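Notes taken during the Thursday session

The instructor put the following on the board and asked us to keep it in front of us for the whole hour. The protein is Mpv17 protein. We were told not to look anything up and to reason only from what is written here. First, the residues (256 in total):
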Amino acid sequence: MAVFTIKAVGRTVLRRSRFPSRPQNTTKRHANTSRGKPEDDPSAGASIPVPNTVATLPIWQRLGPLSTALQAYGRSQRKRPYTTQFCSSLVIYFLGDLSAQNINGDEYDPTRTLRALLISAGSSIPSYKWFIFLGNNFNYPSRGLSLATKVTVNQACFTPIFNTYFFGMQSFLSGDSLPEVWDRIKRTVPTSMINSCKLWPAVTTFSFTYIDAQYRSIFAGVIAIGWQTYLSYLNRQAEIAQDLGNGKIHMTQSIP
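Then, after some discussion, the predicted structure tokens were revealed:
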């Protein structure tokens, strides 16, 4: 038995002497020295490039002082939405009326500006609530279907009601009778609705696609300055035509 044990130990020693075991990190060391620069090997601690996952800021948030103003507006919109909308609407209507009076070539009439501000005061909050409703509804799995539905509903429901209110109040606040108010609406609303289809579907689509919710009102407001200029201009032309029809302006009088 002792002889057998001595032989077994001898064979084990002989095998280890013929095939010495190598450390496990010998291969890695060899690989590192064979490649030359250890930083080329990811296992040596070199940084691995990864794709940039940081979201790019929208362009309107990278415009220096303008971005600061927009961010201040967004904070005000979140804290005091009704007050912000009311004041924004007054500014939009004021600028639109000034522009329209300049286009018509008339002398500045503060009474017209006051009428515009009163109309703005009555429409600012309902208009804001409408677009909140529009943003929270008609959201389908298909983004294209959602946008198409929002644009269609806005043009079919909001536009005729708002335009009727705008032109009707312009006539009413001017002291016209109810038949004259109705005549003003008939002269202006169909034309304004047709022309609104050339502008507001594209504005609505762009707004709901690319603009954050808190900035949609100010984006639409910038566009609305031009639109209010057009509405005021159209109202003035209808007012002149109505006065001509009623004999309030003689044909020999110059009309801007």
